Amino acid sequence: MAYDLVCLSHLRWDFVYQRPQHLLSRCARNHRVFFVEEPVFDSDSPRMEAGKRPDGVEVVVPHLPGGLPAEQVERIQEDLLGNFFAERKIDDYVFWYYTPMAIAFTKSFTPRAVIYDAMDELSAFQGAPPELLEREQDLYKKADLVFTGGQSIYEAKRSQHPSVHAFPSSVDVPHFAQGRELQIDPADQTDIAHPRIGFYGVIDERADLELLEGVAKLRPGWSLIMIGPVVKIDEASLPKAPGIHYLGGKSYAELPSYLSGWDVAMLPFARNESTRFISPTKTPEYLAAGKPVVSTSIKDVVRPYGDEGLVKIADTPEEFVTAVEELLSEDGAARQTKADELLGKMSWDITWGRMSEMIDRVLNEAGASVTGHERVSQKEEITHV
Q1: In this predicted model, what pLDDT tens digit does every residue of 85-120 receive, in sequence order?
Q2: CB 16 within 8 Å of CB 285
Q3: To the nearest 5 percent, what fractions of the chain are helix, strand and coil?
Q4: What predicted TM-score, i.e. pTM, was given to this entire model?
């Protein structure tokens, strides 16, 4: 079914390649996709910057003057977006929200359907706006479908809306399977000694830095490799030890070459509010690369990966060391066979296909020709009966 998809996101498209990029790049094979980011406050006068990426997604960035009150920022974003819609002739479209905060400047628009992809519990993140939960309630009233990025967040949100569907992290198996064959080591990893225990992802308040430091003290001969940008935490707070190597951010295309040189992959996440509902995309990616994995007891890693014996679970430095040593010494062939059976059922192509079918059903339902604004009004009337 023909429609444009307009995504409202708190994430930057070019920052880290993750769930939104996987899903929306697949959507862009058959639809025009516009990825609208949060404003950048660097312009004397408001303007909209747009540029198409190689996968077909057009990234749209509002540039605003700094120091404006929140209400004015929202008003300007609404005007900029309305003008952009007119320029691009976007008149038959679906809204796809990653951030409930975008509700404030999109109320006047009339999408044919509204999708909320709740990939994280944003209210638990450091620096979350105090009004986020209220905005999320507004989004529930408008949404036709709610997708969740994992099982635990599904369980937390399924009572909030009549049509909530769990879509845990999927994986591009062919891409990461390149890591099963030893490749030429990237230059900044070549001189790092084995055994190498590696992590890639955003390094922020979700990282268990005490665990990392504790493992480095217990096994100074090990190399702990941390790949990814440092965000929202002071880099000075990162543990420093000869065996810990911070290699910075890498592109999605580069990850298999780094993985190929690791002996074990790790998920050293803290157990706190910001990790309570996460479903790390890197869990199946590590397994697709053929790497043994050790993780802290993140619920969506324990279920199903820990329960199925595909990932070892350890929360203390001592437990982590023991788990890594067991993985280094074992024959992982049986585990990999079992992992491959699971991975075969969870590709991003399959996930997007199922999501797309649900969207088409919503658009095909009786009354689908009614505008999103009129449908919202009807929902609110029903809610207040």
Answers
A1: 999 999 999 999 999 999 999 999 999 999 999 998
A2: no
A3: 40, 20, 40
A4: 0.89
